[in-house]
Specification:
There is one protein chain. The protein contains 11 helices and 20 strands. The protein is of the alpha/beta class and about 400 residues long. The strands form 4 sheets. It has a 7-stranded mixed sheet with strand order 16-15-14-17-18-20-19, sandwiched between helices. Helix 2 packs across helix 4 and helix 9 runs parallel beside helix 10. The protein is globular.
């Protein structure tokens, strides 16, 4: 069967025989090993058609040299519609409205686009009050950033939602060979970092200079869960960053909260956010120190310990060392929990799946000599959806353990 006419002006990659099943199952990645042929030359970031061995167009995506050769943003035998970005963004906004996030009276910080989970692989868009922050993880999406910004303006206008600025913060997330050429900055409008509201809690968000897009929105529901247990308790928030868990614990009535991070910039921000919510040094202490060293050196114990480290591994070849790091960290954290207290522990390493993370905590429990019960299995919030056909997108893993 000939390739459909919609490919007349589009280059293609051709799948090997019997390698089309993943695409037909709507998996958004095409790996290099699945390809029999590529049109030449292909430029990283350009749109390509994904064709099976019989010449049938199955999907359209962005080409990028490497293991993941194509990131699919449109499935089907026709070319993507001209307003595809507006359609995709509108569907994403509708979901956030269904989740009662967009337009919520007590929350104005939420994720609008979560990559593959919203059919837009390589793209993150977070909304902070009236500013949208775009972060591209693929060169293909980065080349589309101006079209995406225009679609965002149109979407917010149509929805009657105010939008003052669109900021591109992709330099740190693009592949290294492109990051040096990228410049972070405003694609449209202008705004200044300001406090946002999450479930009635105030947080200073610096989308220009902070980590990621400025705040870890994926922990919203987990912070809320911590608040259920925090009244009258002593809490250690390790790897506190902006102090999210600390603020929730303080507002829920914790008797004492220690915010711990190796970064002085992070602990300063945690202190600022606590003060922003009306909490001073009488119930909140700042500790600027390496978390593992602190946990091993201290004799003090807490009713609740939160361990939310950055990713220990971003590639498979570093997974073993990451697992050992998680085990040492959690074994030490368990020693700092009072009998009957709680450990909130997380991993955002995508190469460490839920089963491996669970088994690592089993090993940590054995090493610490403490018994434990699993109370909650945790993940990212619902505005960070996971495609049913791409389980790799379920990156955040967490457990709440009662340490006996």
């Amino acid at each position: 069967m000939p390739i459909v006419l919609s490919l007349r002006n589009m280059k293609t990659v051709v799948l090997k025989a019997k390698k089309e099943d993943a695409v037909l199952r709507q998996h958004p990645w095409v790996f290099s090993g699945a390809l029999a042929h590529e049109d030449s030359p292909l430029t990283d970031g350009e749109r390509v058609g994904v064709v099976n061995a019989r010449g049938q167009l199955l999907a359209t995506g962005h080409y990028q040299s490497g293991s993941i050769r194509v990131r699919i943003f449109h499935f089907g035998p026709e070319a993507p519609p001209e307003d595809i970005w507006l359609q995709k963004l509108a569907a994403a906004l509708q979901l956030r409205q269904t989740l009662a996030l967009a337009g919520a009276p007590d929350t104005n910080a939420w994720r609008l686009v979560h990559g593959e989970g919203d059919g837009l692989p390589g793209l993150i868009i977070d909304v902070y009050h009236h500013t949208a922050v775009i972060q591209c993880h693929s060169i293909g999406m980065h080349l589309e950033r101006h079209a995406l910004a225009m679609a965002l303006q149109q979407l917010f206008t149509q929805s009657g939602m105010p939008l003052q600025a669109i900021y591109d913060k992709s330099r740190e997330t693009l592949p290294a060979r492109y990051a040096e050429q990228a410049t972070d900055g405003y694609l449209w409008g202008q705004a200044h970092p300001l406090p946002v509201t999450e479930n009635g809690h105030l947080f200073e968000v610096d989308w220009e200079g902070g980590q990621k897009t400025g705040f870890f929105l994926d922990q919203r529901e987990n912070r809320q869960l911590l608040a259920r247990y925090a009244a009258g308790k002593t809490v250690l928030n390790a790897f506190c960053y902006t102090g999210g868990f600390s603020v929730y614990a303080l507002k829920a009535g914790a008797s004492k909260v220690d915010s711990l991070d190796a970064s002085a910039k992070a602990t300063a921000l945690a202190e600022k956010n606590a003060a922003l919510n009306g909490f001073g040094t009488d119930r909140h202490a700042i500790i600027t120190q390496d978390a593992l060293s602190f946990l091993r050196q201290q004799d003090s114990t807490y009713d609740i310990v939160v361990v939310d480290p950055p990713a220990f591994a971003k590639s498979l070849d570093k997974r073993h060392n990451a697992v050992q790091g998680y085990k040492r960290l959690n074994a030490s954290a368990m020693q700092r929990v009072k009998p009957g207290g709680l450990l909130f522990t997380f991993s955002c390493s995508q190469v460490v799946d839920k089963a491996l993370f669970y088994n690592t905590l089993v090993a940590a429990g054995l090493e610490s000599g403490r018994n434990a019960r699993v109370l909650h299995h945790l993940s990212q919030g619902p505005d960070h959806p996971v495609s049913l056909f791409q389980p790799e997108g379920d990156y955040l893993k967490g457990l709440v353990l009662q340490i006996v």
